[in-house]
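Before we proceed, please read the two lines closing this message. Report back on whether the structure tokens fit the sequence:
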Amino acid sequence: MTMDSRAQQSMDDETLTSDEMGLTRISPLSRRGFMTASAAVAAGYTLAAGPVRADVIVTDETGLETGNATIKVMGGDMPGYFARPKGVPNPPIVLVAMEVFGLHEYIKDVTRRLGKLGAFAVAPDYYFRAGTDLTRIKDIPQLMPIVNAKADSELLSDLDATAAWAVSQGGDGNRLGIIGFCRGGRAVWEYAAHSTQLKAGVAFYGSLVDPPNPLWPKSPTQLAGEMKAPVLGLYGAEDQGIPVAQVDAMKAALAAAGKTAEFRIFPGAPHGFHADYRPSYRKEPAEQAWADMQAWFKKYNVLG
């Protein structure tokens, strides 16, 4: 790399979000073993994330009540998707904060997995005001300006409204958790600094340092001293958008502020290592991270 190209790379890094870098700098793999684009669309997966693995994890609805939610928020009715165990009164609530790709099949499947664990899991489609189906956008450059226009104040209000909706449907507001992936992982950190009702959060490779954006007043690292709930951070050692040094800095900031948090950094794992529909999926780290999530929520009485 020349000096000029290194300088341009540095400038790009200052304006790109961590998830943009992490998503676009994963080494390409062979497309063998992936669905065709038409099959991926038919199955309900996003297009912008690239090729969809043919052996994605599919969670059935046995023992679950699932469906679409309509959540009253500022500016309209926010769609969502929920899964809860059948016949279980007052189940704990887990909010599912999605990636930048919208409310597609992977996020819905994660919601069902949480339902199988006994949670009333709800994934809000908080980009709905854009008036565009994010799952049908084909490339990241077209997608990112839409999701980057989401103000943190609006996001936090939407998450509060989602929790309130779940309570109105019989969920236990005293056992509230949140889980998020990619941009949704950032939402976990932001929500943990905002909500006084949250009992615990789990952030899968959520960005910790933001590029300049007036709609995002403080990055998660800047909010370290304001955390109101314990958070488990799950990160990949090979994430090209979130270097381990940033994770270490967040860990130090939380410790200095006396806040409760733990981190797992998985060797060899890139950004998106839990996303079983993408080439970035890594089975062993994904399964271990899922187990760590369950243990964290049980420790803080969200699950179990």
Summary: Residues 3-299 form a domain with the Rossmann fold fold (CATH 3.40.50.1820). Confidence is low (pLDDT under 50) at residues 1-13. Residues 152-168 form the longest helix (17 residues). Residues 297 and 303 are 5 Å apart (CA to CA).
